[in-house]
Amino acid sequence: MKYFIWDKEDHPLTAPVAKADRDYFKKYVLLNLTPITETDYMEGFLAILHSLAKQSYILFDGKLYWLIEWDPGLIVLEFNQSGTMRAVALRSPIPCFGGREPLDIDNKEDYDEDAENHQYNLIFDAWDAQFDLQEQKWRGFKPAREEEQKLYFDCLKSIDKLGDQAQAKFEHDLKNYYERAKQNIDQWAGTGIITR
Asked: Does the pLDDT value for residue 110 go beyond 80?
């Protein structure tokens, strides 16, 4: 399991995901992914690319995972070379994540702000390394191998086509498109899966 990033000079790099974060990913992401449709992607998740959301990519087991810091905490999409997609929304362990009002399920009284936040790590270990040579060295980023680059691009081929279709369909009403897309994501994600 490896992060895949582009550095400031547009070079592709990969680094192993730390063991504790890898275990969290396997337990909560992989076991809870559910299928999504092309419409779900075009009329929802695609709009995230036009936001300021922090995000990362992971290569694992012949698939590409797109991780996004987004309410209710972490959204992960799985892409593969066949063009099918799956996704999951995990609730942030931070009760007031994004300024939201905590729910009873957030168990605010028992929240330990010093506890390891794997959702944060899975985004920011890669996000920060894109812009910082020291982070790249510290995290063990190396030039991506040819087969890693091929897997990354092969998993995005069908997604790129959907992006082109959405552009043609919604380009004349982008403001409303982004607003509807955000509502669609929120409705799909709900309160998110609790990972305590």
From this structure: no
For residue 122, the model assigns a pLDDT of 97
CA 17 to chain centre: 14
The one-letter code for the residue type at 56 is: S
Two tokens, residue 46: 């695609």
Take residue 7 and report the two structure tokens written for it: 């550095």
Mark 48-77 as b/e (b = at least 16 C-beta within 10 Å).
Answer: beeeeeebbbbbbeebbbbbbbbbbbbbbb
Query: Distance (Å, rounded) from C-alpha 12 to C-alpha 38?
Result: 27
Record the pTM: 0.93
- 87 pairs with which residues across the strands? 34, 77
Whether the upstream peptide bond of residue 93 has omega within 30° of 0, thus cis, is no
Tens-place pLDDT, residues 123-160: 999 999 999 999 999 999 999 999 999 999 999 999 99
Res 47: pLDDT: 92
Strand segments, DSSP code E, in the chain are: 2-6, 12-16, 34-36, 55-60, 63-70, 73-79, 85-91, 142-143
Q: How far apart are CA 35 and CA 44, in angstroms?
A: 14
